[in-house]
Amino acid sequence: MIDLKYMPKLWVLLLFGYFLLIMILDIHQAREFISNSLFDFIVHPLSGGSAGTLTLFLGIYPVLAILIPLIVDKMENDMVVIRIRNKKELFYQHFIFSIVISAIFVIVMVLAGGMASNLLTGSVKNLWPTEKGSIYFYLENKTSFPIYIPQLTSFKVWLYIISSRFLAILSIAVLLIFFKLVLKKNSYVLLVSLLFLLGSGGLFPGHFHLFLGYIDIDPKLWISPEHQLFPLVYHLFWIVLLFILCQWLYKKRNFTINKLGVKSC
Q1: What does the pLDDT average to over 202-230?
Q2: CA–CA separation, 259 and 207 (whole Å)
Q3: Measured distance CA(260)–CA(263) in Å, rounded
Q4: 49-52 contacts, C-beta under 8 A, 24 or more apart
Q5: Is 125 helix (H, G, I), strand (E, B) or coil?
Q6: Sequence-separated (6 or more) residues with CB below 8 Å from residue 130
C-alpha cells in the first residue's frame, strides 16, 4: 500500500506514544470502578478501558487528525500522483490506509485490555454473563439480568466491541480525509476537526454524539441485538456517505506539475 511508504516516522513514534499514554489513563479510569472481568478493562460499563470513549476521542481522533493530512500531503506532492492516472485511485489508497490503521488501533486496544486484565486480576475471564460481573453489579433492576445473559457471551461481546470500534475509527479517518479535501491546510483540518469533536458531544460520555452515534457501551446496550445494531448501521452510513463525497471530490480535483513537484488545486 502506497500510503504506508509515506508515513513520517518521527511523527508516527510521537503520536503513537501519545495514544498509548491516553489509553493507559483510560485503563486506569476503568480500574477505579468495580472491575474484575476481561471486558471491564477493554470497555467498562461506566467509563474507561483500553477501547473506551476517551481513548477514541482524546487518543485516536487527534492522532489521525495530525497523521492523515501529513500522509496525504507527502504522497500527493510526490511524483506518485503522475503515475496514478485515475484521480479517484488516490482516494482509494487513502481509504485502504484508513482501513489498515483502524485495524491496527483495534488490535492494540484489545491486546492492551487483555494485558491489563491479566495483570490486575490474574485472569482474562468474561464474568459479564454472571452475577460476579460488573454488568450485574451496575444494573438498577437486577431481576432483569436474565434478559442480558444471552447477549453477554464472549463471542457476542468480542464481535460487537471489535466491529463497533473498527467502524468508529474508520468513520473518523474518512471524515478527516474529507476535511483535508475541503480545507486543504493541515492547521485548518486540525482546528476544525477538534471543534467538530467538541461540537458533536464527543468529549461528553453518556450523551449522544452527533457524528459517531452511540459510542458508549453501557449495560442498556446489551438488552437486545437491535440496540447493538443501530450504532453499527449509524457508523456505516457515515462511512458510505463520506466515501461517496470524497470520491466525487477527487474526481473533480486538479493537479498541476511544476519544478517543485505536484500541486493540488
Answers
A1: 71
A2: 51
A3: 9
A4: 49/113, 50/23, 50/26, 50/109, 50/110, 50/112, 50/113, 50/116, 51/106, 51/109, 51/110, 51/113, 51/161, 51/165, 52/26
A5: coil
A6: 136
**Chain segment 176-186, per-residue pLDDT in tens:** 999 999 998 99
Contact 203, 134 (CB under 8 A): no
Q: Would you list the DSSP string of 31-45?
A: HTS---SGGGGTS-S
| DSSP H stretches of helix in 77-86 | 80-83
Q: With pLDDT > 90 as the criterion, what percentage of the chain qualifies?
A: 53
Distances (CA, A) of 88 to 77, 108, 118, 175, 254: 16, 31, 45, 17, 11
Q: What is the DSSP letter of 213?
A: B
Place of cell 463525497: 245
55 grid coordinates: 481513548
Q: Indicate whether this model's pTM tops 0.85.
A: yes
Q: Is 105 exposed, middle or buried (0-12, 13-18, 19+ CB in 10 A)?
A: buried
**Which residues neighbour 216 within 8 Å (Cβ) at sequence distance 6 or greater?**
53, 205, 206
Residue closest to 77 by CA, chosen among 186, 193, 194: 186
